[in-house]
Specification:
By secondary structure, the chain is an alpha/beta fold. It has eleven helices and 16 strands. It is 34% helix and 24% strand. Helix 1 packs across helix 11 and helix 2 (25-38) packs across helix 3 (113-131). It is globular.
Length: 333
């Protein structure tokens, strides 16, 4: 019997070094993965969620996906424990297992925490690239944690016209930390600390991002200007009037969102939103099947739930680069 090939074990540091010097490649990975999805070269089984606390959405998700075009399959085991930061732990952690599709061998096991944050922000930034006004200058945040910072970094790649960043959060400490860290990365941007005044952070913003662990209707419709793009990151972060205000609701994939816990998922379950109210999936716009923004006055609502095949695309890219660079630890099961 032939010996099993080696499997590459990758730490967060191994994965991080692949992307830190070239974060822009993340946008290319998202676009390619979504194009493969529209070309029917992806298998995406249902995500399995074990929810341990309905109120705060404390959960562990099992997310499989395959990229037939890239000859790779994977699964992400990800824990989302929103109250972890209170104890000094990350609120999202996970592991990805990759297998090649010729013999089914496990080619890599890697940390998924960094990749999850990067993928989430890269999807949001891809939406900004295709759906925001090209002249967008002001971005407003509700939430000032790591995911918010990831989004700013990626959005500044997608939309280099950003001049002002307004930041709000429950904690002044997190707002100040956000500004201290991000100002060093983006010295040409004016940062405005808004404390817990969410209205101040959102009023006048061309791009709105809510990136919180709070399950509440924080974002109000009457704060939103015409022509804005709203990037919805978490589960329930906005009042129902926000999607009702939108000229277009666009998703990473509506069929995956509709049975989850996002704002528009809740509305769907309550009969306040129908399938026909969803304009398109982002992949349809990237592939040119559907037009995205059609005028400067449209308010566009973008919602993502996180798609496993995009995680697999990121993991496969990291695996190949680490193989090239001789990074990681090889072992046999």
């Amino acid at each position: 019997m032939n010996r099993q090939p080696m499997t590459l074990l990758l730490s967060e540091a191994d994965v991080k070094q692949v992307f830190e010097k070239n974060k822009g490649v993340a946008l290319n990975i998202v676009e390619k993965a979504l194009e493969m999805r529209t070309a029917d070269k992806v298998i995406l089984p249902d995500k399995s969620s074990q929810i341990f606390d309905e109120k705060i959405q404390k959960r562990i998700n099992c997310m499989p996906g395959s990229l037939i075009g890239d000859n790779v399959s994977g699964v992400k085991w990800v824990a989302v424990f929103p109250e972890n930061p209170k104890s000094g732990y990350e609120n999202v952690t996970g592991t990805i297992i990759l297998s090649e599709l010729e013999h089914g061998h496990t080619i890599s096991v890697m940390d998924a925490s960094y990749l999850t944050g990067l993928r989430t922000a890269a999807v949001g930034a891809t939406a900004v690239k295709y759906l925001s006004n090209e002249s967008s200058e002001i971005i407003g945040f509700i939430g000032a944690g790591n995911e918010a910072m990831n989004h700013l970094d990626m959005i500044c790649i997608a939309r280099q016209s950003i001049k002002t960043c307004k930041v709000s959060s429950r904690s002044d400490t997190s707002v100040n930390r956000f500004i201290e860290i991000e100002k060093a990365k983006h010295p040409d941007i004016e940062f405005i600390a808004c404390g817990n005044n969410y209205e101040k952070a959102i009023t006048g913003a061309d791009i709105i991002v809510t990136a919180t662990s709070t399950q509440a209707d924080l974002l109000k419709a009457n704060w939103i200007k015409k022509g804005a793009l709203y990037v919805h990151v978490g589960g329930w972060e906005d009042e129902y009037a926000v999607p009702q205000l939108a000229d277009k609701i666009i998703c990473d994939e509506w069929e995956c969102i509709k049975h989850r816990s996002q704002t528009i998922s809740r509305m769907y379950k309550e009969g306040l939103l129908k399938d026909a109210d969803i304009y398109a999936n982002l992949g349809d716009i990237i592939s040119g099947r559907v037009r995205g923004r059609e005028n400067k006055e449209e308010f566009i609502y973008f919602c993502s739930v996180g798609l496993a095949f995009i995680d697999v695309a990121f993991a496969n890219y990291a695996y190949m680069k680490c193989r090239e660079n001789g990074t990681g630890f090889e072992f046999q099961f």
